[in-house]
Automatic annotation (TrEMBL):
Pfam families: PK_Tyr_Ser-Thr (PF07714)
GO MF term set: ATP binding; protein kinase activity
Polar residues composition-biased segments: 366-377
Domain of life, per lineage: Eukaryota
InterPro entries reported for this sequence: Prot_kinase_dom, Ser-Thr/Tyr_kinase_cat_dom
All residue ranges annotated as the Protein kinase domain in the record: 1-285
Region annotation Disordered: where it falls in the sequence: 366-407
Protein name per UniProt: Protein kinase domain-containing protein
Amino acid composition bias (Low complexity), ranges on this chain: 379-390
Amino acid sequence: MGNEQIKPSIAHSTEWTFIREIKQHPLFGHIKVYKGPSNQLQCLKTVIVEESQYKDQMDSLKKMIVKDVLSQNQPNCSSLISVNRLETQKQEEFCSNYVKIYLTADYSDQQIQQPKDVKLFMLNIIQALQVMDQIGVNNCQFCTSKILQFDDHVKVVNTQLFTEISDYEQLYFNEVSKNDWMIAPEVMNSLKVNCPPSFNSELAVIFNFGIIMINLLTGVHPQDAQIYDYKNLTLNDNFSSYIHSIDQLQIPNNIKQLIQDCVNVKATLRPTFKSITNLLRQVEIPLQVSQIKNEDVPTNQIFNPCYEDVKKVLSESHVNKNLNFHNESPQKIEKQDFLTDTQQSAQFRKSKQIYNLENAYNSRASIQQKQQIQHTSNKVKTQTKVQKVKSPNQKPKPIRANGNHQK
């Protein structure tokens, strides 16, 4: 009885407080949730096996526990939910010996958010999927619900570690809801013919990864977009328009192309874990969607439109194509009202430098003043010449238009 008071440690710890019990969690199964001193959450999973099956069960668990995998020179993966503590306790009841296995892992009930740093998000997800693929976990039913949000970072859950049911078995027994349906076409083909999985697990989960990225970046769920025919297990015709919906996003074109390559209907044309990781690491700056949207026109630069600016906007605008601007006379627009400063042209806008517009206006004003003074001086000289011509003491000389003019 003394051991019962010690294990599991989290249940008898003074630092952790029991929050609630979830009997049918979609990722963990039957768990108990505890809160730590820093408001962090952990879940406790209890597995009961007979003593004769204990050794095989432990070998299977240790194979999928990330901390043991990392000790065997596997790549570091902080974005994968791992077992923080593994405890066992033998008990005897009704003349039968059995063992309780306690698994304690990180837990979160935060809702998944649109990634702020797209590069970091994609790298974390791909690395987690790659580690699971290396230990033989088939993630053909990978979806957004298997990604847990921890404030500003995410972690992927290996559901097979906690539920002991593979993704393909869940699909085969129709235990996957439409909200979690993000599977590749080759997986649906295997389900239609009722055969064991013969597809490439790496390329299949990369398709799921691409669908997840489109879903999170656009906010449109595949179920709402109706890209799947759940009855016939096929892709609908509007699948093409769904994958091209990211064309309107303000992220680098190579990232858009990468996501679209991931959801290629032909598995052999999709990138691998290694190629995706290499491409993302070549991106030098973090892909922050909110920052990309605001970097084109800095808020601290105020521009007055010039005539060429207005002409360019009206001619190139998608909305104003029907205005037929080029067929209208430019004189209908007061050109002088827009030509306030040559430095405010479209070519100048592309510059990354910030200019002192106040000095530019002062310099322009001084030039205009000089032009006015010079114009006034010329006008006075002209009036003087006219007065000299009209003088009665002198006769004006005839103006010669050409060499044949007669005197």
